[in-house]
Amino acid sequence: MKIWVVVVVVVCVVSNMMESCCVKALAQRVPCFFIFGDSLADSGNNNHLHTSAKVNYPPYGIDFPEGQLLGFEHFIQPFATAAGTDNILDGVNYASGSAGILRQTGQHLGENVNFLGQVWNHRVVMAQMGKILGNRELTRQHLSKCFYWVGLGSNDYINNYYSPSHYTSSRIYTPEQFASVLIEEYCRQILTLYRYGARKVALAGIGRVGCTPNSLFLHDTKGSACVDYINKAVGYFNDKLLGLVEKLNSNFSDAKFIYIDSYGLGGVDPTSFGFKNWSSGCCAVNDVGQCIPSKNPCENRKEYVFWDSFHPTEALNLITANRIFSAENLSDTYPMDVNQLVQISSA
């Protein structure tokens, strides 16, 4: 069996509709890795769907001439191509661009695979894995050693709550009530993953949605650097997610869940890392915030925080990935970082 490096998906800012260079390979070994997420981690699952939320065209992947948008030779295959093959033993990427925690999120852009659908796809993979390994017990043992990453929720705000022309959620719920609705469904899927054998799980909070170029363009900042009321709404979700992590760790002694403070990680002073532009993306975008096909992006990509209207550049992701893997501050991850999580012995 191959041993794959842990691939830390950097969910440090809002995700919306496309894949970006958002994955960083780090040298800590685990036998398998499962990803549940949105466009920050979608490595091709949306390519066969009827949706505008896919980026299988240039300039996406411009810095990876081999066409591998994830940026390294070996990566966790998407469910769309891994299902039915022995590659599933190494893990599967279930992430889908524009997907959210709620079923309806992002649907105005076309098809996607929401959190429930991604968990269902994992069940399909588990059944296939059982046939490969021979029995349920061996499958359980294998899955208990895997690293699970869950990064969802941004689209529930961008492509649901703050899209009133397409969704009614903002007229039904206050921001705090909406966060509770999200956490209830989120918790339901996490408990299902636990029943399916997940024992090492990283749950990423939502980043500073109100600071993305998209938010700055569509909403009134009222003189602030960001759209504060959007960030405040996201904060309700993050607070509840942190509480969920504490509850899960209290209730399940045979598993460990960690919280990734994406919001806090996104609050660093960009100039201290050499960034010169954080209010617009590196590429020229169309009316939905995606890069215009085949149009050359900026040349000085290391000076930009954002690649398009929603997603961070590789330069920012490299910084954030390292802080997630080995936390510089106690608040970066809780109650431990990814490096510590993957070293925990499985039962």
From TrEMBL:
What are the recorded Gene Ontology BP terms? lipid catabolic process
Signal peptide, first to last residue:
1-20
Q: Which GO terms describe its cellular component?
A: extracellular region
Question: What broad class describes the main subcellular location of this protein?
Answer: secreted
Entry keywords, A to Z: Hydrolase, Lipid degradation, Lipid metabolism, Secreted, Signal
Keyword presence, Lipid metabolism: yes
Cross-referenced CDD domains: SGNH_plant_lipase_like (cd01837)
The cross-references to InterPro entries, in alphabetical order and at most eight, read: GDSL (IPR001087), GDSL_esterase/lipase (IPR051238), SGNH_hydro_sf (IPR036514), SGNH_plant_lipase-like (IPR035669)
Q: Name one Pfam family in it.
A: Lipase_GDSL
- Gene3D superfamilies, alphabetized: SGNH hydrolase
Q: Which GO terms describe its molecular function?
A: hydrolase activity, acting on ester bonds
Location in or out of the cell: Secreted
Question: What family does the database annotate?
Answer: Belongs to the 'GDSL' lipolytic enzyme family.
Identify this protein by name. GDSL esterase/lipase
